[in-house]
């Protein structure tokens, strides 16, 4: 059995030997390079754009301005600012040239005559709706009230009532590879190479804009150097690049510079939660009433993230009286969308801060307060209707508690030496396997090797190895004989992609179903080849066996016999070919859960050092513990960044102050630390292979645990992410 084993990653050789193929490695003769001229003011009326000098530049082929495409959730000035600039970085013109340097140089000669408008940057000010972020529109792009029970009554019946404002700043998802696209014009159709999380989805949205101009668009996902949620949804530059290649009938390439990526890639998080909450003397959380404000930036497609945060705000706890007023407000900033965790980290920061603040206020042990409130009977329907599926929360918390007690003791010892050290624990609930379904085809080739083509599109996680393990087990063959392929809309009918920690569970189960179907075909064909009755045959360890006669045929033999000989006839009574497609989707999301425990030290300059780290998760069946652990390690380090280093900062006029990786600090190997990870397998999903996702969990569990450890180290309450240096001195 491969499932449960730490099989080495199948996909790494090409990357570590430098033969990966990212967008910028894909070359087509005659390619034009696109450079985007962007706004450097936050809000303005465009009076005139003069591109005549740019057009005179040697090597410049054309300049595009004023391209607008009506598109869901985007304001009128999309993908290009035509009359109104909405944020610093908003595309205004696109220069096409025979090389990228010429295109970039010509950008300086584009003259933009504009009249500045007042900008609204602070989401709480935006909520007042005095200064408009988009002319003629209310800033309140979205409002929804989530109500359960009688929170006012529950609050008035509480022993204590507290009030806090929790802030989760904006972050830049910071993949190693910036975004990029190569659109190759082929009379009547397009071939698009993209750094994306979903080739199929990109095909669908590009066709919705250009389908009347073109027969078809084939999208191929190039190797992707990280995405973290930010390469899923449509971007202005995708449309501009494709438009340019259609207009000029040429291959057109656009690859973002890092400074463009920080302005152009959708930022993540950006939520403010102003909450009132109550508790009984014993630590029971009685009610939560609050406003959840999401800072959408200059488009409204990020609203679903405040819905996720609001509906998850009770977390793994039993509180049943809640009211959350969710707001989505426009601001003159880069549009916001999902970043690894997408709404669940924001919720976890709020409910875990609430647990710690209640325990401090009542002088109770923070673990005891969590135990008092924890959901213990599963399945459980939370007050806002989410169905928590399976697991044993208390058991996992008790395992984490042991580590926490030890860290607490170590912190006490070190504090005696005058060091600022603290221990923190978080318990979190994850929600994943966002649907609706995923597809996979399994093909057995003539040489007996197996190809699995999945609709999901991994980009670093390692799903290809995990899914190969599942199929190898089902077919009883070596994992080396299974190849997993994805990311080409011409290879598989339909699919969705990689997001919401879904690939292993949904595509893996689709592959499992497909493999079972193929096995059935193998048996039926083998019955013909072996002149047996199919009922007599069994499939075991990659072989078809007839227990009566003792005859066997390996998968490889069946596959090659199926190919007969060239020019021969097909004398059998079964349809030839060994291929099947499977589809899998859940009727409910899955809810993994976990706990993180941190021992951290803060030096006198405010610098945070993690001395020890422990994480535990329950995601049902773990297919490959090494891959799952790698996801946890990466997520913890990102969570560390979000907690103490990373923050997108704008000044009051909307100038981006963190516009490069010098000013926007991401964690590096220097800040990394050892992380011990364990898992439990009690919270199974109801899929044939009862797994749940692990791709995002650690970004949810880390910030509340780390912020708690820091808070204990410095003896000061912390309510914002990141903890800024000036707060930690
Ligand atoms: N796995 C497993 N057993 C399980 C579940 C998963 O062994 N029960 C393994 C899988 O084989 C896979 C990995 O864990 O190698 C993650 O699988 P899964 O939880 O299904 O998540 P996805 O593959 O769908 O990945 C998406 C998730 C998301 S939503 C973001 S955002 C994110 C993340 O993955 N972006 C990443 N991790 C990332 N890792 C890298 N390197 N780059 C990104 O952009
Ligand atoms: Mo994601």
Automatic annotation (TrEMBL):
Coiled coil: none annotated. Pfam families: Ald_Xan_dh_C (PF01315), MoCoBD_1 (PF02738), MoCoBD_2 (PF20256). InterPro entries: Ald_Oxase/Xan_DH_a/b (IPR000674), Ald_Oxase/xanthine_DH-like (IPR016208), AldOxase/xan_DH_MoCoBD1 (IPR008274), AldOxase/xan_DH_MoCoBD2 (IPR046867), Glyceraldehyde_dh-related (IPR053554). GO terms for molecular function: iron ion binding; oxidoreductase activity. Keywords: Molybdenum. Residues 17-118 form the Aldehyde oxidase/xanthine dehydrogenase a/b hammerhead domain. NCBIfam families: glyceraldDH_alpha. This is Aldehyde oxidase. The lineage of its organism: Archaea, Thermoproteota, Thermoprotei, Sulfolobales, Sulfolobaceae.
């Amino acid at each position: 059995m491969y499932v449960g084993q730490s099989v080495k990653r199948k996909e790494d050789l090409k990357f570590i030997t430098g033969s990966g193929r990212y967008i910028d490695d894909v070359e087509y003769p005659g390619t034009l390079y696109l450079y985007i001229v962007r706004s450097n003011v936050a809000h303005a009326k465009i009076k005139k754009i003069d591109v005549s000098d740019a057009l005179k530049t040697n090597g410049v082929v054309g300049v595009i301005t004023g391209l607008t495409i009506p598109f869901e959730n985007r304001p009128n000035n999309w993908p290009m600012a035509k009359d109104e600039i909405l944020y610093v970085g908003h595309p205004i013109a696109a220069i096409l040239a025979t090389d990228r340097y010429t295109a970039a140089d010509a950008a300086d000669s584009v003259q933009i005559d504009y009249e500045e408008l007042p900008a609204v940057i602070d989401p709480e000010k935006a909520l007042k709706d005095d200064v408009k972020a988009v002319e003629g529109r209310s800033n309140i792009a979205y409002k929804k009230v989530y109500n359960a029970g009688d929170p006012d009554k529950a609050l008035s019946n509480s022993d204590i009532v507290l009030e806090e404002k929790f802030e989760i700043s904006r972050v830049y998802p910071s993949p190693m590879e910036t975004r990029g696209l190569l659109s190759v014009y082929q009379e009547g159709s397009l071939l698009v190479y993209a750094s994306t999380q979903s080739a199929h989805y990109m095909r669908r949205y590009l066709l919705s804009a250009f389908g009347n101009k073109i027969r078809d668009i084939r999208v191929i996902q190039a190797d992707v150097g990280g995405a973290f949620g930010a390469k899923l949804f449509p971007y202005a530059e995708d449309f501009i690049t494709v438009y340019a290649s259609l207009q000029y009938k040429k291959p057109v390439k656009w690859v973002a510079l890092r400074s463009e990526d920080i302005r152009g890639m959708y930022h993540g998080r950006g939520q403010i939660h102003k909450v009132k909450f109550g508790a009984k003397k014993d630590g029971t959380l009685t009610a939560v009433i609050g406003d959840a404000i999401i800072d959408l930036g200059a488009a409204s497609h990020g609203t679903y993230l405040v819905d996720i945060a609001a509906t998850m705000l009770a977390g793994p706890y039993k509180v049943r009286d809640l009211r959350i007023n969710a707001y989505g407000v426009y601001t003159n900033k880069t549009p916001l969308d999902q970043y690894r965790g997408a709404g669940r980290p924001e919720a976890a920061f709020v409910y875990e801060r609430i647990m710690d603040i209640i325990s401090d206020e009542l002088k109770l042990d923070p673990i005891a307060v969590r135990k008092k409130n924890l959901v213990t009977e599963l399945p459980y329907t939370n007050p806002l209707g989410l169905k928590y599926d399976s697991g044993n929360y208390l058991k996992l918390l008790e395992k984490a508690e042991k580590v926490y007690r030890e860290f607490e003791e170590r912190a006490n010892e070190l504090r005696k030496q005058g060091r600022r050290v603290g221990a923190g624990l978080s318990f979190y609930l994850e929600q994943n396997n966002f649907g609706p379904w995923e597809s996979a085809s399994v093909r057995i080739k003539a040489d007996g090797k197996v190809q699995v083509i999945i609709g999901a599109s991994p980009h670093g996680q390692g799903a290809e190895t995990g899914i190969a393990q599942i199929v190898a087990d089902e077919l009883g063959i070596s994992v080396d004989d299974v190849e997993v392929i994805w990311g080409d809309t011409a290879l598989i009918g339909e699919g969705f992609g990689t997001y919401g920690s879904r690939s292993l569970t949904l595509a893996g189960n689709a592959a499992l179903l497909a493999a079972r179907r193929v096995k059935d075909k193998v048996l039926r064909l083998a019955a013909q080849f072996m002149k047996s009755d199919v009922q007599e045959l069994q499939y075991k360890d990659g072989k078809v066996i007839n227990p009566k006669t003792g005859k066997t045929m390996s998968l490889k033999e069946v596959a090659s016999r199926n190919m007969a000989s060239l020019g021969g006839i097909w004398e059998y009574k079964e349809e030839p070919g060994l291929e099947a497609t499977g589809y899998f989707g859940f009727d409910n999301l899955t809810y993994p859960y976990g706990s993180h425990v941190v021992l951290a030290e803060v030096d006198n300059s405010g610098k945070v050092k993690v001395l020890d780290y422990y994480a535990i998760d329950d995601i049902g069946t773990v297919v490959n513990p090494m891959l799952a652990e790698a996801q946890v390690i990466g997520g913890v380090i990102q969570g560390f960044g979000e907690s103490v280093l990373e923050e997108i900062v704008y000044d009051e006029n909307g100038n981006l102050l963190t516009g490069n990786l010098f000013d926007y600090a991401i964690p590096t190997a220097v800040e990394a630390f050892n992380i011990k990870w364990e898992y439990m397998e009690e919270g199974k999903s109801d899929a044939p292979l009862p797994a749940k996702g692990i791709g995002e969990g650690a970004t949810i569990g880390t910030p509340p645990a780390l912020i708690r450890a820091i808070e204990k180290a410095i003896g000061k309450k912390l309510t914002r992410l990141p903890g800024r240096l000036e707060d930690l001195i």
